Amino acid sequence: xxxxxxxxxxxxxxxxxxxxxxxxxxxxxxxxxxxxxxxxxxxxxxxxxxxxxxxxxxxxxxxxxxxxxxxxxxxxxxxxxxxxxxxxxxxxxxxxxxxxxxxxxxxxxxxxxxxxxxxxxxxxxxxxxxxxxxxxxxxxxxxxxxxxxxxxxxxxxxxxxxxxxxxxxxxxxxxxxxxxxxxxxxxxxxxxxxxxxxxxxxxxxxxxxxxxxxxxxxxx
Length: 220
Ligand code: C5J
Known about the structure:
InterPro entries: Isochorismatase-like_dom, Isochorismatase-like_hydrls, Isochorismatase-like_sf. This is Peroxyureidoacrylate/ureidoacrylate amidohydrolase RutB. The chain is of the alpha/beta class. It is built from eight helices and ten strands. A six-stranded parallel β-sheet has the order 7-4-3-8-9-10, with helices on both faces. Strand 5 and strand 6 form a beta hairpin. The protein is globular. The model has no long low-confidence stretch (mean pLDDT 97). Bound molecules: dicarbonimidic diamide. The site of dicarbonimidic diamide has 8 residues, from helix 7.
């Protein structure tokens, strides 16, 4: 077992049973004209973590961890997008509508692609998800089971929405999870900070947290 200096206490993992889950590092959340921007968000807040996520993925690949990438994206006929989700808020364009990067949050469209700096390499797992959590409506659970994965090292956007929902889903399913604090971001820095605090509170009620610098010294 490898030990990471983490909060609220050290996190232990072995490379064979651990996956990095990189959540929704898509153009739709990070680039101008995407879903996140159409909701009025400041995308610079989430774009800032791209180098940290890239460094985390490089570290995980060198250590031989299983790498999973998720994308929040709906089927082209929107049959997996509840009307309530599509109608939520008051955006100029809605999920499924044409935008500068194709149809918003729809599978296969340019906006749904993971940005090149942190894109999947051949052989890495990619999960398209209709919800905020990566387990809901996907085969993630069976994929992880098939790979013998019991621990998740999690990063991505946004901390208080898809990252947090996925961590809570994983926690309820018995996974031990470490959130890499500076490899996750929100459009709202306060939400990020509070979510990190909340998730690791009460003895790590949902997960452990650590900054990337605590992982990088660990080598194969
Ligand atoms: C949101 C996400 N914020 N990936 N999605 O709608 O966090």
